[in-house]
Each structure stands twice: as structure tokens, then as C-alpha cells.
Amino acid sequence: MKYTYFPGCSLKGTGRAYEESLLAVFQAMGIELEELEDWNCCGATAYMAVDEVKACVMASRNLAIAEKAGHKELLAPCSACYLVLNKTKHYIKESPSVERVVNRALESAHLAYSGNVPVRHPLDVLVHDIGLAEIKKRVKHPLKGLKVAPYYGCQIVRPYATFDDQYNPVTMDRLLEALGCTLVNYPVKTRCCGGSLTGTLPEPGLFCAYVLLKEAIVCGAEVIATVCPLCQFNLDGYHDSIEKKWGSYRIPTVFFTQLMGLAFGIPANALGLQRGFVPMKPLPALAQGVAA
Amino acid sequence: MSEFQRTIKYEADRVKGFGREVMAVPGCEQLESCIQCGTCSGVCPLTIYMDFSPRQVMALTRADFKNEVLRSHTIWLCASCYACTVECPREIRITDIMYELKQRAIHEGIYPKQFAIPVLAKEFYRMAAKHGRVTENVLATLMFLKTNWRAAIGKWKLGLGLFLRGRFPLRIESIKRKDELARMMEMVDNVDIDKLTDGPKGRSKALQPH
Q1: Among residues A72, A163, A34, A58, which one has the least CA distance to residue A109?
Q2: Residue B140 forms part of a structural domain
Q3: Closest Cα in chain A to B99
């Protein structure tokens, strides 16, 4: 099985651990990922705020290159990339004028897009294409007793809920259960992390992150699992500022692929776990604790 | 700013046609059917920090109160989580309307000056168009230097923490075929969208990059 991989800017920068763990896990599963040739920024939320048509044109270049590569499906691990690429597909389909501008622009670069590149999230691919049974087979060290809050954030389930329910998504819940984790009931699993506000307007932005951290602790979680580089950054990088305003809510936030890697027996450093600000408890001790 | 501000709006404060213009943009048409139920304000995690609630912004936009809407904090506090969009019983794409209003505020240069968000959006836009990719830490540094350099100094600890964890690249990321992307963007600037359109609903005007 082969997918075209669209890393996006964050997975090459602040979200490096996501790329490291994603590639390691897919390799362990025997799924080939080929990085999209000369991919460009998806445009994220910021580009849309300045010029929506140009944002679509920018994102469409990636879709066209992916179509040329011919591996059919484009894998977008970052929630913003996932949303923007899907949104662009919708816009092209819905609006004849957007479609024409996009086609003209692509033509000038000797590219073309016919609308046939499905944009998929790794969570969707792992659970629905590969299947939980296959994943269970690869588990060497079940994460027994690890209490996890599954945090989906907004943009992989809204507004285009393609593979899960937009109110109560459960794909990651089932995946983490297959690894042996204990899932806590986390009612804010799709609440906003603050997005880029944490950097621009600290009080409202950090408030969003604080609510999620506090709720996870109140729900009895030891770790938060996330699917998005910006969510991970917001929940992991601002503990000092949050502590000053609202008190200490230090709980590690990791990518779901990092938990998969640990369960598969991949060393923590190869999964980028050393890159987090709030470290996760070492697992062997945890497993012994359960056995004792 | 004077000490007293009129809190009641007059007919004369409206910019006639503004609501129609916004509702002509693809994706924003449904605004016309807003029933002012307030579901958007209820589900929005940021309403508590807004000057106008999302429901009020919908009403003000539809009723042509352009200046109030484009100067509001609300449009910049929207973090695009789409909670309102999926909950709206009238299927109004509130997030997309917020994007449309942000674009107009940037174009007219009338956003609240103390806000770093429009500056971030513009710097992001520039960097993405120039290099084809965005190097987050460089972008954040640029934004702080342009808005509040004192705040940038306050962030040294976060920057150092990221650097020590290998999350602060020192090289600006770039695509190989920058000329290709530049050509595509130039094409959008030059194209006469009106002539390209035979869309069913006469939406062409609103699509022009403002």
C-alpha cells in the first residue's frame, strides 16, 4: 500500500516529533509514504484571511502535483492542511468561477487538477484502510493502564466530517484502546485549542488551552493524545504562562502516533518524545506498577 | 475617543449595500436566512472575550453596519474551529463569513491597530507567497518585531526551549520551483474574473480579490 505524504510546514518545524513518529509507525506497518514532490504551504487559516481565491490556488498546486504523482490518495497529518486541502476541493467543485481561476493558474504552471485526489488523515487511513486487527498484531508492549484523554480538536471533524462523527468522534478512542490504553471520558474532545491566538492574543488563546488541560486532569487522564501539530504546541508549549494566570496544569500532550510507536516497541527517541516540554512518564515503570 | 459613546445605532450609520455584497460571496449566501437564535454565540469558545457576539456580527453585517463589523474584535478572535458552522440550524457558514470580513478589514486597513492577528495574517501571506513554505519560528519573530518587540523578548524562554528540543529550525524553508508558484499568483492578479465567469448565480463580482 502506498500514499502520497503531505507533511506541511509544522511537521518540518515545531511539530517534528509528529513526522518522526508518523514515519516510524507507517514503516512498522509496512505502508509506503512518498513525500509530495516540491509541496508548498497549504495556506492555513492565515492565508484565507487575506485572500481566499489565492489561498485556493496555492492549495490546488499541491493537489495537482499529487494527481501527477498518481498514488491516488494524499495523506495530510496536520489538521489545518487537511481542512484547507479539503476545503479547496469543495470550493473548486461548488463554484465555477473558483474552478476557472484555479485551472487558469495551474495551466500557467503546466499543471492540471481534475478533482480526483482524496485528501485523507492518517487516523482515518490507519483505522479504516489498515484496520484495528492489523494494528493489534503489531503491539509488542500494550500500554496497559495508561489513562489517555483523546483530543481531536476542530479541523479534522469540522466542517467536513468525512470519516467520523463531528460531535463525538471515536476513531482515535478505538485506536488507543487497541494499543491497550484506558480512555477517559473527555467531553471537550473537539473544543478549540486557541489556534494561532495563543501567539497573537495570549489571554483568549491561552484560556482555550487552559480549559483543555484542566479538563483532562479533572477527567483523570495522565496524558493527552492529539492529532494536530498546533494543538500539541498549544497544549505543550505554554505551561509557564498558563501557570501564571490560572495555576499549574502540567500534563503531557503527545501525538497519537507516538503512543502507537511506544506500543510497537519503537524507542522513545525515534518517536521524538524527547521534544515535548512536559515529559511523559517512562512506560516500563508504569507497566510494572500495573503488574505489581 | 470621547468619554461618551452613543450606544444606539441610527439608520445613518449604515453603509447601504454592504450586507448584500457580503451575501453575494460564494459560501456566504445563507446569511440572509439567519433567525438570530444565538446558537453560534453559545457554542463559540471565544464569545466570552468578544465585543460583539457572533450572532450580533451576523445581524450587523446583514443590516449594513459595515464600520461596526470591520472594526470589531470578534472577527479577529475567531480561531476557525467551525463549531458555529456545523451547529447553525440555518446552515450559515459563519466561519467563512468571518473570513470574508477579515479580508475586507485588511483590505480597508481598519482593523484594531493593537491586534497582532492581522499582522500575522499578512506576514504569513507574504512568506508563503515568497518562499512557498512557512517557517513558523521566523514568522512568529517577524510578527513580534512588527507589533510588540517587548513581547518578543518575553518569549525568549519559549524560543530557547524549542531550540533545545530541535523544534526551532534556523533555516528558512523554501520550495524548489518558486517561479512556478509566483506565475500562478500573478495569473490570479491579472485574470479578469468577470470574463471567466458564467456561474449560475452572478457571483463573479464578489470573487474579485479586494
Answers
A1: A58
A2: yes
A3: A49
**Closest alpha carbon to A196 in A58, A2, A48:** A48
Distance CA A36, CA A125 (A): 17
Residues in chain B: 210
pTM exceeds cut of 0.90? yes
DSSP-based three-state secondary structure for A251 = coil
**Pairing between strand A223-226 and A119-120?**
unpaired
Q: Is B20 an interface residue toward A (CB < 8 Å)?
A: no
Whether residues B76 and B137 fall in one domain: no
State yes or no: cis peptide before A159, omega within 30 of 0: yes
Q: Confirm or reject contact between B166 and chain A (CB < 8 A).
A: yes
Separation between Cα atoms, residue B35 and residue A41, nearest integer Å: 38
**CATH level 2 (architecture), domain A139-291:** 3-Layer(aba) Sandwich (3.40)
By the CB < 8 Å criterion, does B45 face chain A?
yes
How far, in Å, CA of B28 to CA of A58, rounded? 22
Q: Where does a domain end: B59, B91, B108?
A: B108
Same domain, B73 and B136: no
CATH class, domain A2-120, is: mainly alpha
From chain A, the residues in CB contact with B26 under 8 A are 91, 94-95, 97-98
> Does pLDDT of A176 surpass 80?
yes
CA distance B60 to B48: 19
ipTM: 0.90
- In chain B, the number of structural domains is 2
CA–CA distance, A84 with A96 (Å, rounded to integer) = 18
* H helical segments located in B27-155: 39-43, 54-62, 66-70, 74-77, 83-87, 94-108, 117-131, 136-147, 149-154
Domain that holds residue B98: 11-108
Q: Does B163 contact chain A (CB < 8 Å)?
A: no
Condensed to tens digits (0 to 9), the pLDDT of residues B43-91 reads 999 999 999 999 999 999 999 999 999 999 999 999 999 999 999 999 9
